[in-house]
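Please decode residue identities from the backbone states below.
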């Protein structure tokens, strides 16, 4: 019996010794779980658009996605028309801004779930005028937006949910000649329309309540032509966002008295359903 007691005491002592060693090595500290306060942003690699696509030939595309507020740095803008398509799934504010060296351009400022596209002209001021200062002033007068020039910008995103941003930019080699008959809703961009010399009647209709804007952007970024500007937020005199009518645009090499013929994107800002119709024929001069 004496040997059994000694054996039991020895095993018990060994167990106690092991527990003491574990306690010392662990330092008696509790495990700490680190919680990520801000969501991580997933950014996909920029990809070049397929050269055999009719709608994206000669253009480049980049895609970004994430959740919550973030800043996308070192985004390169090229001359031409920049088309931004974006989506947001959330209940609060959603805002996308391009922040350049000299200007900040707000592309989207919405609330809640959103899907839409917008277009901006990107043009080098020195190409508009030999004097950079005069060039910037001239381009500002040509555009309804802040002046965007080729180079590096940041994209600021304010969001409370998941979002995606797709950039399509560059100068396409060609487009579709009228007739054009297009219908959609919300913010969208019709690309690309090739206007020859002559007068073209562009008929549009909108069934929304707050805003309807329609503007043409020349493919090289050198000109933005505002056709319809009905916005209750910026113009207190506007009492209804519905619109129905037509604009007669003179496409002429004489840039002083008309819009230069060429390739254009048609951008629409709307809160309802809209249609755009451009007949095939024009009154030539």
């Amino acid at each position: 019996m004496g040997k059994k007691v000694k054996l039991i005491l020895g095993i018990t002592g060994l167990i106690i010794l092991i527990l003491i060693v574990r306690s010392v090595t662990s330092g008696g500290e509790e495990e700490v779980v680190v919680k990520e306060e801000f969501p991580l942003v997933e950014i996909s690699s920029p990809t070049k658009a397929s050269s055999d696509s009719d709608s994206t030939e000669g253009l480049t595309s980049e895609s970004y996605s994430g959740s919550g507020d973030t800043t996308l740095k070192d985004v390169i803008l090229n001359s031409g028309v920049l088309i931004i398509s974006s989506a947001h799934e959330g209940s609060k504010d959603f805002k996308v801004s391009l922040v350049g060296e000299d200007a900040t351009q707000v592309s989207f400022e919405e609330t809640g779930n959103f899907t839409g596209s917008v277009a901006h002209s990107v043009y080098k001021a020195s190409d508009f005028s030999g004097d950079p200062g005069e060039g910037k002033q001239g381009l500002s007068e040509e555009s309804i937006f802040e002046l965007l020039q080729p180079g590096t910008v940041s994209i600021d995103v304010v969001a409370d949910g998941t979002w995606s941003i797709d950039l399509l930019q560059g100068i396409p080699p060609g487009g579709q000649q009228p007739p054009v008959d297009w219908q959609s809703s919300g913010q969208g961009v019709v690309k690309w329309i090739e206007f020859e010399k002559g007068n073209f009647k562009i008929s549009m209709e909108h069934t929304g309540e707050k805003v309807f804007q329609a503007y043409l952007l020349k493919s090289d970024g050198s000109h933005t032509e505002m056709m319809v500007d009905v916005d209750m937020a910026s113009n207190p005199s506007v009492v209804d966002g519905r619109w129905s009518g037509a604009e007669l645009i003179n496409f002429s090499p004489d840039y002083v008295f008309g819009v230069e013929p060429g390739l254009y994107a048609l951008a629409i800002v709307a809160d309802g359903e809209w249609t755009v119709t451009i007949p095939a024929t024009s009154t030539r001069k």
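Observation: The first strand starts at residue 47 and ends at 48.
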